[in-house]
Amino acid sequence: MAAGFYFLISCSAFLCFFSGTSIAADFITRSKSISDGQSLVSQNGIFVLGFFSPGKSNRYVGIWYKNIPTQTVVWVANRDNPLTDSTGVLKIDDEGNIALVNKTNSLFWSSNSSKAVAKTESLILRLLGSGNLVLSDGKGGNPDQNFLWQSFDYPCDTLLPGMKMGWDLKTGLNRRLSAWKSEDDPSPGEITHGMELYADPEAVMWIRSRKRYRSGPWNGRGFSGASHSMKDNAMFTYHFTFNEEEVSFLYQPINGSILSRTVLEMSHDSGQFERLYWDDRQQKWEFYFKLPKEFCDEYGACGAYSNCDMNASPYCKCLKGFKPKSPAAWNSMIWSDGCTHQTSLDCGKGKGEGFLIVKSVKLPDAEHTWLNKSMNLEECKAECLRNCSCTAYANFDVTERGSGCVLWFGDLIDIKQFPSNGGGQELYIRVAASDLDASRTEKRLILVVAITVTLAVLLLGCCGFCIIWRKKKTKSKELGNIAESITDRSLLDESHMDNLELPSFDFVTIATATHNFSDKSKLGEGGFGPVYMGKFPDGQQIAVKRLSKTSLQGPEEFKNEVILISKLQHRNLVRLLGCCIHAEERMLIYEYMDNQSLDHFIFDQARSKLLNWKLRLRIILGIARGLLYLHQDSRLRIIHRDLKTSNILLDGKMEPKISDFGMARIFGGDQIEAETNRVVGTFGYMPPEYAIDGIFSVKSDVYSFGVIVLEIISGKRNRGFCHPEFQLNLLGHTWSLWNEGRAMELIDPSMRDSCCGDEVEVLRCIHVGLLCVQQNTEDRPTMASVVLMLSSECALAKPQQPGFFAQRYPVMTDSSSSKQESSIANDLSATVLEGR
Ligand SMILES: *[C@@H]1O[C@H](CO)[C@@H](O)[C@H](O)[C@H]1NC(C)=O
Ligand SMILES: *[C@@H]1O[C@H](CO)[C@@H](O)[C@H](O)[C@H]1NC(C)=O
Ligand SMILES: *[C@@H]1O[C@H](CO)[C@@H](O)[C@H](O)[C@H]1NC(C)=O
Ligand SMILES: *[C@@H]1O[C@H](CO)[C@@H](O)[C@H](O)[C@H]1NC(C)=O
Ligand SMILES: *[C@@H]1O[C@H](CO)[C@@H](O)[C@H](O)[C@H]1NC(C)=O
Question: Is the confidence at residue 63, as pLDDT, over 50?
């Protein structure tokens, strides 16, 4: 009955198909082909197979969704061999293969199935409702099993529900995804994603021959590194097959009527593996996940033997029992060198070895692993100890009580920390017995310290009480001061016990060093006063900042601030050597920078030639790191508020150093993220919310940083930038170029030659710059993200319109020379509002 009905339907569809009307069949036979312009539609009406052009002219045969307005192609037959005209024909050929030919019968693609076919007459090529194109011998039965060839075995960039990714070990077939080369070129690009046949298999995304992202091995519940596969209330179910015949993975939506696809996309020269589902109400694709999602998903982001934790700052930490391999690099957040054993292993010869457990982690790169599916954890440990090159072990399967044994050999790379209930599994890491003890002692020590501190506090409290009791007359202010100095002291003590006092220079020394503050030794004038160059008798060169007499602080407060700020030390911050207080006079003494400030270079025709792209990129990164340190990693959390090219100094090796940080603190009266009555800053570098409303936050600095990035790349000032045609400043100009896809035209002509081949890098920097100067503060990234975006290949958000992109500032603050750039008061900012 059903069969007859089916026959009727297909037959009528077939007839209509012949007559060329819009209703199409879902199959062809040997005697019929489809030519360009015709198509097959799956019976459920979801998928279409036909000819299409992603770009201008080239024609491809592919499968897409019938009812989704923007053509979403899920499979392409002739990926790297397009037809150049519309004479293509798809047919079943004499050998029983599917063939794509043009008018003169040149072959453009063939299914080339190896299975021998007796009678080609009975062959049927059908587009199934799952999006699978299947060639079968027409004998009936389930076409999902009884087929000669199926498109699901030859994925392009898309994994559809029910489609397997991975290996058929009997035939050697490896089903893996490869991203399109570009939006209009479906040929396989350099980004691929597939199952790797390691002892403990896992899915890996590759860029050329470099790993970009790993899923982590399957542990029975999910991939240990893909927390979405372990969600309880997930939208999808996952099936992993791992036996002698097959290593493969597939997914299915729980609600079968929801359309979904998983795509390997190329974005900004790197890969992105993403699952989308169709939102019927909003008529658009929604993301279910995007991988790599965050910094810690980047392969080996923290180097060997370290743990990457998105909730920690900084993200990378050496595993317990390990220390940074290159401490200096590690501290400036260059993590690629990774960590190394605190005590090197001697493989049982000395005190022996043991294992430290880390919980809820993505298991390390499984390329060099060994597996036994039936061992328990005790046997596993013994097995690992038996072999000197075994570095870690874990359960193979974590369902129920855990079973199986995986051993790692060689460096442990790419471990990611998940929140305690958010995925991952337990990993046992081999360390020397002494480090095991150390970790135990550490715990004991913490306990001891905790008890001591509690006692001390009690004692102190008691003493304090006694003091108050005895000296009722003592002003409470004094007590406050004691408390204050204790906290400040402890802050200082942590690093340099011996260096409690910042050198105070006497006035005569400084006056002599600067030839009595002569005009000749004047280097420039910043927002906080003039800067002089000086030389001590021993030959050391210094820069002296003579603060304008508006400081609200008394000498002691000033000194305290300076001491705190002098503790901020980073290779990208100018080092404060000391201060000088003389009557009303306040001075700061800095190390002298040979190459003066960045604006001397980038805005100068001759000197800008000295800055090639690599150097500019290094400068950008240096500034970013310095600023990140101020915002996040220093204990004071400093917002600079007057970041500009003239405040970036360059040392003899052209390493950038931020100067003038902490000035807001020295001038007193500022909290974090607050409004201020006194708008300090420089037009052109100030974000709208600050210039107009006086609201500042770390995001104000991010804005200034973005301006600096664009200035470094373009060699032009944001202020004073003049476009012949438009009333745009540099930001506006960049924004319009960006939207027209002509961002490369922004590049400073004097480095155009040196950035050949680095276009992607340059574009990425422009992109990051634009993200930083976005109008909306919340849209702007933090400096932590900026550093990551600049030093990794993670995907970037689309920038929104920048703040202040039209050249409509009041004329009177025009300052093309840094000497005139000075603090401006709030009343001016009202003028800024005009014309916006
Ligand atoms: C068919 O393709 C071949 C090879 O690309 C080409 O030489 C020939 O001109 C094409 N024929 C037509 C009619 O386009
Ligand atoms: C078809 O497959 C065979 C081996 O399976 C290979 O040698 C041959 O080059 C393939 N032909 C085409 C047109 O891909
Ligand atoms: C499945 O999804 C469809 C479309 O979104 C919805 O109408 C239906 O209620 C869902 N079914 C279940 C069981 O959730
Ligand atoms: C796995 O371990 C079990 C139990 O220790 C042992 O009997 C079996 O031979 C091992 N298999 C392999 C392949 O080593
Ligand atoms: C240790 O394991 C490695 C990797 O499986 C193997 O090559 C080596 O022979 C083993 N050594 C010993 C002593 O078992």
Answer: yes
